[in-house]
Amino acid sequence: MTSPQTLPDTQKAVRWHPPAYDIRVEDVPAPRIQHPDDAIVKVKLGALCGSDLHIYRGHGGVDQVHTCGHEFIGEVVALGENFRSSVQGRPALYSSLKVGDKVVSPFTVNCGECHVCRLGYTARCPEGFLFGSPALEGGQAQYARVPKAGGTLFNLSNPSTWSSALPNDIKQKALSDISDSSLLLLADILPTGVFAALQAINHPKVAPVITGKPWPLCFSKDDISGNEVSFTKSDRVLTVVVIGLGPVGICATVSMLDALATRNVPFQLVAVDPNESRRQKMMTVYKTIDAAGKGSGTFVVLSIDEARTQVKEMTNGVGATAILEVVGNTSALDLAYELVRAFGVITSVGVHGAPPLPVTGRDLYNKNVSLDFGRCPARAMFPPAFDLLVKRQDVFGTVGEPASLIDRIVDLGQATESYRAFDKGEVGKVIFDPWK
Ligand SMILES: [Zn+2]
Ligand SMILES: [Zn+2]
After folding, report:
1. CA-CA distance, 46 to 240, in Å (whole number)?
2. CA of 69 to the centre of ligand 1 (A)
3. Cα 3 to Cα 350: distance, rounded to the nearest angstrom
4. What is the CA(16)–ligand 1 centre distance, in A?
5. Class of residue 417 by CB neighbours under 10 A (exposed 0-12, middle 13-18, buried 19+)
6. How distant, in Å, are the alpha carbons of 162, 174, 181, 404, 433 from that of 166?
């Protein structure tokens, strides 16, 4: 074990206090190695995220004081004794991660060694925890303890330990060129946006439009030229709606545009948000993306009422084939159900609270709607998210510009005010520098 004596006794951390709207910056004990699989990370940057607001507002079903935040990037400062070069048969980081390595952590811990992790469902590893919850202290602090660190972390100092579709030289160059604030988007919001888009575009309900073959021939490799059904040009146009244009919604939209462009799918994409400044941001982002990143389909950014009318018009009253619901409340889901076509899919990646769903089994039956819910397996989604991050530095690489996803980087002293302003929709994504 690397000597933990280099760690201070106490650190500054952003703490949530029950019942709601109470964020304090406090001195708390600095973390220590508790298990041989642990790593301690000195946090360089920790981000504030839309899903932090569920706990902030008291909707998280949580009643314990804890350190907030599940998005952080930093440097390894201590490793448990299971990190040794002689380790075999475990995730590569147990034999290769070193003190001093730069790492980004997915927002949940995962072991990387069980059936669930092997299948890529890393967000639901039975040994997993969510950072920034009563079960595991978060990353809006100077230091964070990462359990199962060999299965969880990404070592940015040694990219041979993770895959990417990019050629090695481009991958290496990207890692030296891209800023830490941009790489931090890989902790949650960019993988989550990519997850929403890829779940939708690969969903069986979307297959007829993508393949040009009717259900169920869309699942067959057979030639269908003898089939009596032939699609019109407009049958081949995929209509997608993104509901919610916060930072994750923008990531989902950018990712969907990229997926449609690279697959050369004709499309109509409707991005919806009731907040005008968020709509403006989305439009500025769209204008910033080059032609290769947005294909040749129709793209509109609309208010809720405008979207109701527009989706009807665009689809002759049929509705959209895929809806990405990136808000996580019942009114967003209600709107999703209203806008989706019969035989459509709703992919929801927002964190839903306790209220019952606004749709009944009968509603879903009557429209043959697939409802796809849940947390992004950020570790499994890291490679495609990294590739999109590299490609879309025009949007993901800057801070505080009109097309930037990140609005500002502030010190921990501004945490309380940042939570308030983010909750009110007055600022976009805020990042904390705990050493500023
Ligand atoms: Zn997050
Ligand atoms: Zn696992």
Report:
1. 32
2. 8
3. 40
4. 16
5. middle
6. 12, 10, 21, 24, 30
CA of 215 to the centre of ligand 1 (A): 37
DSSP per residue over 181-195, as a string? HHHGGGGTHHHHHHH
Q: Which residue's structure tokens are 């995929």? A: 238
Between CA 307 and CA 286 the distance in angstroms is 18
The Cβ of residue 399 has, within 10 Å, a number of other Cβ atoms equal to: 15
Nearest ligand by distance to the CA of 69:
1
Contact, 14 vs 56, CB < 8 A?
Answer: no
Structure tokens at 41: 């990370």
pLDDT digits (tens, 9 = 90+) for 174-196: 999 999 999 999 999 999 999 99
What pLDDT does 426 receive? Answer: 87
For 302-344, the pLDDT digits (tens) are 999 999 999 999 999 999 999 999 999 999 999 999 999 999 9
Compute the distance from residue 130 Cα to the ligand 2 centre, in Å. 13
Question: Considering only 5-9, 27-31, 116-120, 400-404, which range has the smallest mean pLDDT?
Answer: 5-9
Residues for the chain: how many in total?
436
Around ion ligand 2, residues with a beta carbon closer than 5 Å are: 110-111, 114, 117, 125
